[in-house]
Amino acid sequence: MDEIVLKVEGVGKKYIISHENHAGSYTALRDVISNKAKSILKRGSKQLPKEEFWALRDVSFEIRKGDAVGIIGRNGAGKSTLLKILSRITEPTKGRIEINGRVASLLEVGTGFHPELTGRENIFLNGAILGMSRLEIRRKFDEIVEFSGVEKFLDTPVKRYSSGMYVRLAFAVAAHLEPEILVVDEVLAVGDAEFQKKCLGKMEDVSKKEGRTVLFVSHNMGAVASLCNNAILLNRGEVEGFGPASSIIKSYFSSSSNSAYSFDLKHSAVKHGDDIVELLSGQLHDSAGNAKGTYKIDEEFNLTLKYKIKKSISASVVPNIQILNAQGECLFVCNGQDVQSLPEGEYAAKCTFPQNFLNDGLHFVVIAFITYYSTNYEHNFVLKNAMAFEIIDKLHDNPLRYNYVGPMPGYIRPNLMFKVSKI
Amino acid sequence: MQQQSAVPYSIIVFAGLLPWQFFSNALTECSNSLIGNTNLITKVYFPRMIIPVSSIFTSFIDFFISFVILLGLFLVYGYTPPAEIFAMPLFWIFAFLASFGPGLYLTALNVKYRDFRYVIPFIVQFGLFISPVGYSSTQIPEKWQWLYSLNPMVGVIDGFRWCIVTDAPNPMLKYPFYISLGVTIFFLWLSIWQFRRMEKNFADLI
Fold this sequence. Notes:
- The structure holds two protein chains of two kinds.
- By secondary structure, chain A is of the alpha/beta class.
- Chain A folds into two domains: about 5-20 and about 50-255, P-loop containing nucleotide triphosphate hydrolases (Rossmann fold, 3-Layer(aba) Sandwich), CATH 3.40.50; about 260-390, Coagulation Factor XIII, Chain A, domain 1, CATH 2.70.50.60.
- Chain A has eight helices and 18 strands.
- Helices cover about 70% and strands about 0% of the residues of chain B.
- Chain B contains nine helices and no strands.
- In chain B, α3 crosses α4 (about 90-110).
- The N and C termini of chain B lie far apart (about 50 Å).
């Protein structure tokens, strides 16, 4: 299991952004020639403005067989470029990559499908591209079709597929054709929740049961946390962290100007809200008021949201939080109670998480504001992945554990009292 | 040339038209092949050269279909082709290589300079006049033969005609044929080299 299947050494990718102000969207030979001629005539005149852009800079890591690696980072961090290089679609400008085995990649929607061919033909086309024989593909065919759930449209050209069908088929093909390395970009966002779950399950099978390697890009931290044992954090083309998924995810949250456990939008260009309410800040802190992101399981802690009511209306504008676990499953949703119609101004809402409440592990907070009118309600805004915190369990000196130090399953860990009495 | 030959004029012309049509077809298809498959190129890896090669193979199939028409002409005129017709496969390969070289170069250029495709119909049309399709290459003065043969299709078409027309001269006995062959091989080498150099960036450029 220790065999290295993917080795990336000092990889960099440079793009040249030109700021020529010609109207065409592509390079035309005509323009190239006329520009050359112009520059000969006006020798010594200024060069056309061109700018180098390093989408990736000095990226190095190693991935072992059977690993599931999540690649996370903000938009523009270079995730997709890295995947494109790993699946050999483009070459890196610098550095080298060693790959042991076949790579099946699922980049963006519509991966490697020929729009004019039918679903059936595309399955064979994709298999052939992966270097499988017809016989091998035929053996896997039924499984692929069943997984994708498009059997009815198998003989329809894929150009008529909906984007969901497209992705379902593409994922099914890539996951079932037994590549040594499966590369999945954030395409799964297109599918519905049920299919996403199915895909995550399949990727887990691929990495854990079949011992193959999965590389997975996603903005869904829950999915990354549940599927991947390792993660790579990219920031502006550079590797900012490589290690166990949960710690990398935490540093992802704190890599922005704000930390995972507190954020302040007062002076930020990013605004969350509408014309009624706007979120100003959010903070997780202990009862003494110290902001932090890690709490012991028997520690009480608080979540304080500050917000501004911009327009007083005769309805309750209610703060609402949702707590997700590391697998992205919702543990509970909670509305602020007793919120009346408020006059304009800034408010703080504080809620307390009791001790011995959540199980240990990473948790995410979703913040929403909902306006409840007399008969209906309306979401003012929803801020996903707003905050993250970790609950840690005391392995020792925990009277509930006795001498057991293994993981305790479950979503919550209440401290129920057992009254033991002799009968 | 119809006066000099006992063979029906239409057969002589068709013998030249056949490889020429294949060439123009293959060149057009091949040069557009890469941009036509953008979504494959930007999403999956495979040796890029498969795309232009396969586009030439499809033109080859068209070519075999027009070959049936030639057989029909044979029947209509009651014409028996010479034994040289068995040498035909050699010229099929020659025709394939002669169109593959420029086609490969053009398709790679087309990725980078999208306006290049407007040049291709012009090349094809102009090429018709500098290739011995409607006339025989023997009509070109001896001292200009070397220049004329720089067009690789001259060798191909002369070869086809030799295979089909009884009294056509054997082009392989004269040096201009080897100029055509040499140009073909040079183009092939040049375009494969150029293609390999450019294919790294196809996904970024396309």
